[in-house]
Write a structure and sequence with these properties.
This protein is mostly helical. Helix content is 83%, strand content 0%.
């Protein structure tokens, strides 16, 4: 009986070692929280700029200069939010990896990044096409859907919980397709609130002990 128990423990240890070797486990829950905070800040500024634009539109009608200014301001804001989210996410991930004496960049993290980037890059090109033809209403749902697909695709190389976040992002994006006028709210919910909730759950589950 003791020999069977020891054999079972040995098999479990081997399984844990294999799982660690095939998955990137240094993702920090605080990375999700920081990304969500940046997204909500970005949504706040975007909301104010859009309402300011429509206020001017009501006063003097359509103005090409106003519209171009709004478009480039929103694109610059999106780039700033993305840069901030990536920088803080990398910092918290690096800090957790250093604490656990694990490498940040290895064969597994490379596979994770590749599988994450394939849907993201595809979605980025798709969104640029939407912007070219002024289909602004479908930018937010497209971002949510392709980001969700990226998380699902990359989840096999990291924490499995990421897959469920991806599913929720996809569902939000699909619902948003039918209510495009609420795109900013869905964007804030998916990239902001959902990231913060997921990050706190992951921090409590994996980092707080």
């Amino acid at each position: 009986m003791d020999q069977q128990h020891a054999s079972l423990e040995a098999l479990q240890d081997i399984r844990r070692i294999m799982d660690r070797s095939s998955r990137f486990l240094s993702l920090s829950g605080l990375s999700g929280v920081s990304a969500g905070v940046f997204a909500l800040i970005g949504a706040y500024f975007a909301y104010n700029w859009i309402w300011e634009y429509y206020g001017r539109y009501t006063e003097r009608g359509y103005n090409t200069g106003d519209f171009q200014h709004l478009k480039w301001s929103l694109l610059a804001l999106a780039a700033a939010v993305l840069a901030g989210a990536i920088a803080t996410s990398f910092y918290f991930t690096w800090r957790k990896a250093r604490k656990n004496n694990l490498p940040v960049w290895d064969h597994t993290s490379r596979k994770l990044l590749i599988n994450l980037l394939i849907p993201l890059m595809t979605g980025g090109v798709f969104v640029l096409g939407l912007l070219k033809y002024s289909a602004w209403a479908f930018v937010a749902p497209s971002c949510l859907i392709f980001y969700g697909l990226a998380l699902v695709n990359a989840s096999k190389y990291t924490l499995s919980d990421i897959r469920y976040v991806g599913f929720m992002e996809i569902i939000l994006g699909l619902i948003n397709m039918w209510y495009p006028q609420y795109g900013l709210y869905f964007w804030g919910a998916g990239f902001g609130v959902l990231h913060i909730v997921y990050g706190l759950v992951m921090w409590w589950k994996y980092d707080s002990h």
